[in-house]
Amino acid sequence: MGILLDGHDLVLVQGITGREGSFHTLQMIEYGTQVVGGVTPGKGGEWVHGLPVFDTVAAAIEVTGANTSLVCVNAAHATDAIYEAINAGIKLIVCITEGIPVLDMIKLREHLRLTGSRLIGPNSPGLLTPGRAKIGIIPGYIAMPGSVGVVSRSGTLTYEIVYALTYEAIGQTTCVGIGGDPIVGTNFVEVLSMFEDDPQTEQVVLIGEIGGRAEIDAAAFIQAEMTKPVTAFIAGRSAPEGQRMGHAGAIIAGREGSAAEKIEALRAAGVRIAENPEAIPGLLAGDRPNRRV
Amino acid sequence: MGILLDGHDLVLVQGITGREGSFHTLQMIEYGTQVVGGVTPGKGGEWVHGLPVFDTVAAAIEVTGANTSLVCVNAAHATDAIYEAINAGIKLIVCITEGIPVLDMIKLREHLRLTGSRLIGPNSPGLLTPGRAKIGIIPGYIAMPGSVGVVSRSGTLTYEIVYALTYEAIGQTTCVGIGGDPIVGTNFVEVLSMFEDDPQTEQVVLIGEIGGRAEIDAAAFIQAEMTKPVTAFIAGRSAPEGQRMGHAGAIIAGREGSAAEKIEALRAAGVRIAENPEAIPGLLAGDRPNRRV
Amino acid sequence: MRLHEYQAKQRFARYQIPTPAGHVVTSPQDAYAVAAALAQPVVLKAQVLTGRGGRGSGVKAAFNAAEAQNHAAEMLGMKIKGVIVRKLLIEPVIKSVASIYLGITCDRNVSRLAIMASNAPIADIEASAHLQPSTIIREYIHPFSGLHNYQVRNLANGLNLPREHWDDFTRIAQRLYRCGIESDATLAEIDPLALTPDGRLLALSSRLVIDDNALARQPELRAMHDSDAELRALAQARAAEISYIKLSGQIGCIVNGAGLAMTTMDMITTYGDGTVGPANFLDIGGGAQADKVTAGLHIILADPDVKVILLNIFGGTTRGDEVARGILQALDEIRGEGPLVIRLMGTHAEEGRTLLESACPNDLHVVTTLNEATQLAIAIALGTL
Amino acid sequence: MRLHEYQAKQRFARYQIPTPAGHVVTSPQDAYAVAAALAQPVVLKAQVLTGRGGRGSGVKAAFNAAEAQNHAAEMLGMKIKGVIVRKLLIEPVIKSVASIYLGITCDRNVSRLAIMASNAPIADIEASAHLQPSTIIREYIHPFSGLHNYQVRNLANGLNLPREHWDDFTRIAQRLYRCGIESDATLAEIDPLALTPDGRLLALSSRLVIDDNALARQPELRAMHDSDAELRALAQARAAEISYIKLSGQIGCIVNGAGLAMTTMDMITTYGDGTVGPANFLDIGGGAQADKVTAGLHIILADPDVKVILLNIFGGTTRGDEVARGILQALDEIRGEGPLVIRLMGTHAEEGRTLLESACPNDLHVVTTLNEATQLAIAIALGTL
Fold first, then answer.
1. Using beta carbons and an 8 Å cutoff, which residues of D are at the interface with B?
2. Where are the alpha helices (DSSP H) in A117-244?
3. Could you read off the pLDDT of A42-57 as tens digits, one per residue?
4. In this complex, which of D144, D148, D153 lies closest to B55 when CB atoms are compared?
5. How far away is chain D from the Cα of A62, in angstroms, using its nearest Cα?
6. Chain A, 193-212: which have a CB under 8 Å from a chain D CB?
7. Domain residue spans in chain B?
8. Closest to B11 (Cα-Cα) out of B94, B82, B77
9. CATH topology for C21-92?
10. Which member of A134, C111, C297, D129 lies 3.0 to 4.6 Å from A128 by CB, making a disulfide possible if both were Cys?
11. How do the domains of chain D map onto residue ranges?
12. pTM score of the predicted model
């Protein structure tokens, strides 16, 4: 069944009438996700792909019983949409929006601590449980059901690696993009812990990058708490110091956040390190069928 | 032993070098309170009544082991002092300061919810466990040890009533002034609940006034949860609507907050209502000695 | 501290909340000039700080400049609840196709600000903050994360406001919130917020009440206080930092502590039995400082209704003899006339009472209990002593 | 987005943070005039936006106006890390008896802002936010209740700052905090905050870095961006909303997605083995829009170091044939020269690759895997193909 999605997910799309929102709503429906409606303030009463659009999240929940939301709203309005979802009682919120100011995220992070809602992202490709459902923009065709959990801070790099697994017929339980911003709602450790507890997941692939110490914390958690094998790839080994590498969060500050430091910590925790994405399938634990799809 | 003070209270006075701070520190020491030091920023290293003065609460705790604080700081700096106490780990804070802006208290109240600290006040005379200790400015001579818990929103009116009890040789377990502001750290219900749980307390006197619905909430709690008899006095039966009666919190807004409404609710909860303060001793439950002190 | 409507609107304008193009005048001539310049029907609003002013006799409409001048001549100098009208706000009459109430105040019962909106006027927002009539839509504002746009949309939705006005409404609500917060307002309201035939939202009437406790850090707002527009005694009390409220009875009260002051008032009312009552509420604060007693006596002696003064002091940690000396010093400064009942309690109160009795026997009655004090004052007021 | 030091100081001045009386000049003559007017020794600081500018060759002291003019003549027009110096900030030399570092930045590991102070300069505050060297005093700022005065006192206490300066220090720290918050700064620092012989605290050097993501709501700050003072390619990338960093190698990279772009860069570095490397990091964002490919190609073709371009696109939900048509359109617009390796993956990628191969065979190599793409580009750069 995978993590985070539990089969009773009734999904709302905030920003459903936008170009992206509408496109990805269709993709999600086609993949099998139970999308039950959307929210666009001022457009309540319209219909998108046969789904009702509401003015407010509260109204959408009342009618549809939604418990999960994809926030597909531009950066200027994204935190408002997330607060609305939290305060209306949505339990799982996935935000794909890039470019939310860091001071807004600091506040939102604190607010999240005080509520029972979980945020994945922002600046996340979302999450996908192969063959079952997806929330976000991860392309469905790259994945197949299986027993590897994937967690990542990247977007297309994640697709690359998931595709490489699928190409080698190695399926996944759930693929989770936690987002590339310096402050995100859910971190590596939380997702690793879910994979550890998930009976379907047999091993985990972690895709990290430079910046911050999320991977260092992950290494500590893996060493102390995890029984399942972990294979990792860290992007940015050749990145210069002090430069933001595309992702707002991908920056080496002084001695902190370098790929070398992270690789060292993960290795010390018993994690196998891939030199490049295409090397990951070969590093996985166990006897996996090596046939082409 | 009474409530709130547990005999291991090591008290700090924030604002100890001020006129009021210094005066009441001495009064507290003379009453038997274990005052262990004081804080006045910029005056660390001085001594007041033989007690060391520190620049910061953190330093004071480190040296003295203080776990309780009296905030005796003017309104412009009082919330800063309270945040300092909370964040340094002080568990019980009594604030006698009058005139803290309501927007500051709204924020502080929310912050308190998220921490393990309790605030009594602001605009409170403090608390006193007769014959044992006091924190604040309640005069010691008005009280005597006994079995009546007293909780009040007022200052001198509390003295009046405690004195009336003592005059009739009716002693008290603890006298608690929760403060006369619209937003306070600890409300009637919380103190009533402590009295209910306190084995020494046999009955309770509640001194309320117009404004807000703290007494209505108290009535609901008394009806639902309390086994001990409660006697109440509510000030402001003749107060006009829409006028602030001295205390920032004492104002009748529309139909809400009138003495009549409160008296009715308390009566309905089985509380005896005194028509004037001097009538309280006569209304108390049980056979009390009626001799003069 | 209440601001005048024109002051509140000036403040609103700084936060880009749209208001009618108004002007304040102090003479009928200026009223003519302003109305002539506006060249359309106008409304004249008396600027006084008594209760929920700006309504009733304090508001008049005029179709032209001459009529405005006539109204102004009538209104300027008239008294509203005892206060002389010195300023008029003149604004164009605005046509509206819909009226919205929008206000922010503190709901003390949940320790939060509440923003409320309604399609009908709300008579008393502070009361409504807790009471929940179904015609009022309400959102609580989180003290840390503030007012969210979605909350304003919830209000707009509840009001059935046409969607083309949602953005405008959201901007105005956010500005009202910012204005309120940054002004330390305990009440910030627009009543009504009018929807004009050409589709604009306009704050026709506005009200800002500033937290007295925050005036020290709001020097600009404090300076806006117009003590000419409130009762003289209130202005004096404010200056002396004592709390005073005029009532309709004959017994002037000076008490230390708000709860005790209310109790004194209540007992006079009860024992006075409809014939005699308290002339005022007056709280000089927890201590018993001589200068506040002096200021209190000044205010009460100026009240023609007062037949007897009741001074009720519970000394707390202050010694009774010190309190007594303070009272004597105040009486000495004042040299007022009329009977005075003094009830003095607290540490060393007996010494204090002795001091008072020996120093100043004429018309001065020193007692011990609250009951005695009240009943004696009532007897004096009734002339039955 | 970094501000110039003079811009940061203008911003500081608005928040009443005391700074030296500085002026910006663009000519030696003006430098003379400013130094003459200041009538005391001055310091000239080149205003360029390269790394931690305002240090090293970019700073010169002058004892008098003539010397200031000479220095200015030398400095104006010189290059610092490839950027021409066009503006100098001239300030009086300030004597100081003590120097304090004071800075605020985000500690992402605890999701909070941290305010840090030290008696020694902090080389890299963002790194120090998490690392905890004992010479740095630090307080975390609660996102809701903000910076408390007591926290600033804790800093002052830790610095052993004489107490007579605590109030001043607290005011400055609170203003720096407000300035930072209201400017959406990811870094606001004063280094050093000097204590002058006459007992004032003065911000000698200042640094403000604005969150790029917040520029939309900071129009005033966005307008302050000086694209003349940074590398041309950076300014172009900023305008096209793509992320670009110049590196020292020969293979120009255009990739969609930051992680994939870094990975491409890493693989070139590894396989290039010290001989060949990436010429840049360039992320056109998650999608694969033609206009961003065009902008990326423009920037890379202007780089004389580039010998071959590697375009690595993983299409995600975008169809491969659409991506291919976008690339062809971009190439058509650009009409640039030089070899190009294209790796295209994603849905319908094969159709896309076929389209690319058939449309534009000269110097264009279409491949499937990351390994192939990297090694082919390296071979071309080395001339071994």
1. 142, 144-145, 148-150, 153-154, 157, 163, 166-167
2. 156-167, 188-197, 214-225
3. 999 999 999 999 999 9
4. D153
5. 31
6. 207, 209-212
7. 10-120, 138-290
8. B94
9. Dna Ligase; domain 1 (3.30.1490)
10. A134
11. 21-92, 98-222, 234-382
12. 0.91
